[in-house]
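Example record

One chain of 89 residues, shown exactly as stored in the release files.
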Amino acid sequence: MSKDGSSLRTVQLGSDGVHHSLIVDGIDLSRGMRSAQLKLAAGELPTLTLDPIIFNLDGADLGSVRVIVTDQAAKALVALGWTPPEEAQ
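Predicted structure tokens for this chain:
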């Protein structure tokens, strides 16, 4: 992954004019994105900027919380370049 958080991925985009699809490295991310912007410029690799749907928890001081990432969410995050943390012993 580069300094700006980007990495090369295999991407498939589709649209019927109403419904859109976004598949990154074989993982369907369509329902988890607020928006996706594709930049095509001569002499440059295409750049896809993604804005995932993430809920804002500012001000929600919950103390210690056990966080579980579902397999489906983990696959989507890995497709975007996330490295899962080591399992706690």
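Notes: The CA atoms of residues 35 and 51 lie 5 Å apart.
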